[in-house]
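Data card: per-record layout.
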Amino acid sequence: MATHRRIDVAKIGEITVVKFLDKKILDEANIQELGTELFGLVEHDNRKSIVLNFTGVEFLSSAALGKLITLDRKVKAAKGRMKMSNIRPEIFEVFQITKLNKVFDIRTDESEAISAF
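The structure for this 117-residue chain is written out next.
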């Protein structure tokens, strides 16, 4: 099992639940590391059902959004599905402005996201 510094990973049945350990996802080096850890879930651990729980995340940079888009593509390429939950209104607004709320499957909370699989 890989060790993660940016994310907390739990498995609920076949579903992988990821929580972010950083409140503000801004720093380029941290975002690179976050991307590597997230991509590894799909590429190395073969996780196909992923819930990204944003509880505690206060800010997300555009570079972090780029990583999420790439992750979504990797999950879809692996014939998997990804959902997001617990996104603060001010972050959700960024998803709406960028139209990413149409790309990502965003649910109110973790239990709703899990039951959507």
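Known properties of this structure: The chain has one domain: 7-112. Residues 28-43 form the longest helix (16 residues).

See the next section for split statistics.
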